[in-house]
Design goal:
By secondary structure, the protein is α+β, with helices and mostly antiparallel strands. It has a domain at 31-58. The protein is 41% helix and 14% strand. It has helices at 9-24, 35-42, and strands spanning 49-52, 55-58. The chain has a two-stranded antiparallel ribbon. Strand 1 and strand 2 form a beta hairpin. The radius of gyration is 24 Å and the shape is elongated. Residues 1-39 are annotated as: Disordered. Residues 19-39 have a biased composition (Basic and acidic residues).
């Protein structure tokens, strides 16, 4: 059985309204990011740590 079989008509209407709102709010943003901003988001400028003989050190 589906979940929709157990819901009343008013509840089904509310669920359908939520689905429609989700579809309309998934628009792509037109924000253009620079290469520096993209590198920051990917985490390439973070410090790198390596385990050497059991101790954690900067690489």
């Amino acid at each position: 059985m589906k979940i929709a079989d157990h819901l009343s008509s008013a509840e089904l209407h509310q669920v359908n309204n939520f689905k429609n709102k989700d579809k309309s709010s998934n628009k792509k943003s037109n924000e253009r990011l620079s290469s520096r901003d993209l590198a920051e988001l990917m985490g390439t400028n973070r410090p790198i740590y390596k385990r050497v003989r059991g101790a954690i050190r900067n690489k």
